[in-house]
Design goal:
homodimer; about 625 residues; alpha/beta; 6-stranded mixed beta sheet; about 30% helix
């Protein structure tokens, strides 16, 4: 009988091994998770709720489990005991300190400036204050006709349509406030306006949402439609994670489970709605104050969000149902905005180059640039765009989830307690590290893993192929039954009391991931017959973007070896591009143009990518001439 | 204690007086209603279900009442006993012979010819058969892009949008049928096409619906969108009748009952859905075969149908929320067409000149006519339009529901057993009559009532003011405690065994109704400074249109005294106009143009209408010069 079990916590990507019979609360603590509890684990407060998504546990006394959690795998962490290998989801409410997704606030100030420069401020939904004449027996036009005439006169809006929700509230609102109203009009299609809502009185602030639907995380920006300013932002994990970590696993769930597609669409909706609720609650707003949303996601995420079957994306020839998506009313999708609010999905290019990439390209200005630019988005996948105002080519390389902590023994996402930087003393193998929020370490996030790879090589612990060759006798370097491993942080220093290690197979996985990204870049350049020297600037987007150490990323051959001054870290460019589309009809039109203009390169066609990939499976690369700055170091060793 | 109670049956407008304790089944039989029953009234078959909408009855043994009818006022007619005055609704399922609304089939052949003459055949939804190339790794456009390209090439459709429902089925359908599909595209807005659905294979027939939402009756035409031919039609009573007979009663219910608006919207939806179900069942079609609908109704009906509060229509200055309505998807309204099918409400002119009148004007060609035409729609209200291609003026006169049998003691709608024609022998007061379907008489419908009024006057039984002055001693003419009355059919001849009479107050009501219509016509003519001689043709639309005896209608002063050859009876012009809009984008655009161009005359403004009305309160009119043909007869008497 099994006596030790593995307990994996999602969405954190943390796992521990504990004896059979261990309470889940203890396992969570060992994994570095802090759960909320008011009774100190006595089983009376009913707050440390977890959900078992795989495997089983003995639920124990469930008397205090709140009614809303009954069934569907929920248990109390303090009462439930581990019986075998198990995967457990940690709901946001159950966390002592909510592990919010890091939302990038550095762009708040600059982005408005950027918008002002590049695009006229003309949100896809605007509000017009109107004072209408009261009707009489003689001047007896209908309410809508009266409103249309005034909107034509005051705002130049011709051929104003309306939706049913707006029409249903129109008569009552006009009369309740003495014919002084604010009309909220969407202009998401060129030359065509639609009345979304009418609110009583003048000057009421209305808001829009820019949404990034990532495979792993979802971020929502709350934007004041009158000023264009971002009022607040929230991020969280995509609840779809319970059905699989990456797009492929989710497509399989959508295709093969009877309720799969519905599950995933609901999970996306719930994720966004929870973020909306938090934003509304914090700012004292109502659902009806939210009048438009733009959503950027990869092609699979956009299909799932809209409830469109993505199964054909996964099988050759990899065809999505659509790359341009209809504008949908929030009510149709069950999103908690005004039911008539337009929800605009950003257009995609192909199955593996989605609206998130289009948004990023929009945000960088690549499509308007005279000089050649490179855009690299490293998330659960890696997407790369090369181009300028003349041409754009894009590809997607299956980098895998390594850089988000997936598939790495002590990998984790960039959250509190993640090692994000580290240095290994080549003489002593002693490790110095920084963790997010200065907490005791729980694992290594993407930037920490890049550093680790570079430092392991620099210290001579691994060779150029990633094989462990360190000869120094040190407690940090050891061999287990299965593998070589290097101890980054000893159990005495970590949150969970276990050693945090990086193994030889972790190293191999990271090398494959970095090689895929680099090979994608090389293949695009080769395709257009240009070399890196012609690229004026390289934009790095994605979750770990702004925390990445360029020198180390170049050192391991993830990024090309060019002057570091040519790199720009732009964080979550997906939500930034979505926001541009929310605030400028012209930007939205340009996003559509970008999606049309961009040429998608299918890497599985021909041998170029595979050749480049194989050559990149060394640290930093087979061909050291491509990495002159690294070559110096290699020469020393 | 009350020993005799009144039992009113709706929507038939039939009522009887019976002793307290009478079973409802007996009361129904006395009223001439035949209810379905398999057990002979033993209370075991559960089929004679009625619904009490006002008053109460002792339900008796309800063991056999089907579960779906429990609550909400349903009882078994054979078990429930009358306890006081009561109003009872007779569901269609409970009738032995379903009293279907008479749908006018005489236009089936001619209308297609008319359409061909006047408007190009270009339905607002069309089907295009496509054979697409299968995608490859190289030709890897999305399914939608591939379809759009082919529709552009084959059908010249630019900028094709889609809806969510179509998108959700696209990928599966294309692959299930080897890329050979039929694309169904709506073009309800000029220059803008929307993909509604894709069906596998080629050549499948798709259908549209033309709907007339009358206050009293609802008619649905099933139309083949490929040929324009009307495949079938169905009519029934508007289930809203349970909340009131006329638009005013329904507006009050909508405004004053907490669930009033919802009730009425649901009742309209259910009425239409039941007709749809019957059409689908009969022709072996599926819901998804119905790809578009056009709906014509008066302004209140259209508001209620769309769930828009109509309360401001009823109070001065009588302002509707809208006269132009948005195109709505069937799914949004819960109508049983394809969920993405566009439902196009015809535009209205004002609160009391609705889309049904616009449809009628469209169907008559009035708006394109060189010569002056008059359009008169006599339904629950009376609407009149005067005009040609240069101008159009319209008014609505509160004729009341007399001509549909409302407010008349033995009035009823034009259904089986209704007296539709009658003649009174001036010498003997003997009555000859015709009933619909040759059945034993149950009551008098509109055309019968017009005849009765004319004949009562002709026989000298009433004077020009409608007062009973008949001097001949006859069992047909008698005085009750309350009123004078004339027996049209003795109890020995009638279905219910009671005498069918017409009373002095019935006569007064009919005179007021006919005076309102005539005064409306006079007021419109006076407004534009023209007289009847300038009117080349008079179109009579409405439920009783084609059964009306022009000579008698002129005789009583309902219609102007012009050459009978100038009259045209066009039956249900509302559904005919709706059908034109379904089958021709150009006709639909013209309906919008008609609604914009038509000038609405509010009759409550100024004294003209009231003066005309008072003058018309005689038979045929105060001024006999206006009725030369009647004047001859009056001179004789």
């Amino acid at each position: 009988m099994q006596t030790e079990c593995s307990v994996a916590f999602i969405p954190d990507n943390l796992s521990v091994h504990v004896p059979v019979g261990t309470p889940l609360l203890r396992a969570a603590t060992l994994a570095g998770l802090e759960l909320t509890s008011a009774c100190g684990g006595k089983g009376t407060c009913g707050r440390c709720v977890l959900r078992i998504v795989k495997g089983t546990a003995d639920p124990g006394d469930e008397a205090s489990l709140p009614a809303k959690y009954r069934g569907d795998g929920y248990v109390l962490a303090c009462k439930a005991r581990v019986q075998g290998d198990i995967t457990v989801e940690v709901p946001g409410d159950s966390r002592l300190i909510e592990h919010q997704v890091l939302v990038d606030s550095s762009l708040l100030a600059e982005e408005l400036v950027g918008l002002g420069d590049a695009y006229p401020f003309a949100p896809i939904c605007r509000s017009v204050d109107l004072s209408l004449d009261e009707p009489t027996l003689v001047a007896n036009a209908s309410d809508l006709t009266r409103l249309q005439a005034e909107l034509r006169r005051r705002a130049g809006l011709e051929d104003l349509r309306t939706n049913l929700a707006a029409l249903r509230q129109l008569g009552g609102t006009l009369r309740a406030c003495g014919w002084k109203v604010s009309a909220h009009v969407a202009e998401h299609h060129p030359g065509q306006a639609e009345l979304i809502a009418v609110s009583p009185g003048h000057g009421e602030r209305k808001y829009g949402l820019a949404v990034d639907i990532g495979t792993t995380t979802v971020v929502v920006d709350l934007v004041d439609l009158a000023t264009g300013l971002t009022v607040d932002k929230r991020g969280t994990y995509n609840k779809q994670a319970r059905y699989g970590d990456d797009v492929i696993a989710r497509i399989i769930h959508a295709a093969e489970d009877a309720t799969g597609l519905k599950d995933l669409t609901e999970a996306a909706r719930e994720t966004i709605n929870e973020l909306i609720d938090r934003l509304l609650g914090k700012h004292g707003l109502r659902q009806d104050d939210l009048l438009a949303a733009t959503c950027a996601g990869n092609t699979t995420m956009t299909h799932l969000f809209l409830g469109v079957d993505p199964r054909h994306i996964r099988v050759e020839p990899y065809i999505p149902t659509a790359t341009c998506f209809p504008v949908v009313r929030a009510g149709e999708l069950g999103l908690r905005l005004h039911p008539g609010a337009p929800v605009v999905p950003l257009p995609a290019v192909a199955s593996y180059v989605g609206g998130d990439v289009v948004a990023g390209v929009l945000a960088t200005g690549l499509a308007r640039s005279d000089s050649l630019l490179l855009f690299i988005d490293i998330g659960t996948n890696g997407e790369i765009v090369l181009g300028n105002k003349e041409f754009m080519v894009a590809c997607s390389c299956s980098a895998g989830p390594c850089f988000e902590g997936g598939g790495i023994s002590n990998g984790m996402r960039a959250m509190k307690g993640a090692i994000q930087r580290l240095h290994i003393d080549p003489a002593t193998y002693a490790v110095e590290y920084d963790t997010i929020a200065g907490a005791r370490p729980i694992g290594l996030c993407g930037s920490g893993l890049v550093d680790a790879l570079a430092e392991l090589r620099r210290a001579g612990i691994i060779d150029r192929a990633g094989k462990f060759v360190g000869e120094r006798k040190s407690p940090s370097l050891r061999r287990t039954d299965e593998d070589w491993e290097f101890v980054v942080a000893p159990g005495s220093a970590t949150e969970c009391g276990r050693d945090l290690c990086i193994t030889e197979s972790d190293v191999k996985n990271l090398i494959r991931a970095k090689a895929a990204v680099y090979a994608g870049i090389s293949t695009l350049l080769r395709m257009v017959g240009m070399d890196l020297e012609a690229v004026e600037r390289i934009y790095i987007a994605g979750g770990f973007g702004s925390y990445l150490n360029v020198k180390d990323a170049v050192g391991i051959g993830l990024l090309p070896d060019v002057d570091p001054a040519r790199y720009r870290f732009i964080g979550n460019s997906s939500v930034k591009g979505a926001k541009l589309c929310l605030l400028s009809k012209e930007a939205k039109a340009e996003a559509e143009e970008i999606a049309r203009r961009m040429t998608y390169l299918e890497l599985s066609l021909g041998n170029t990518f595979m050749d480049e990939f194989v050559q990149a499976l060394f640290l930093p690369h087979t061909n050291l001439k491509l990495f002159p700055s690294a070559a110096v170091q290699e020469a020393i060793q």
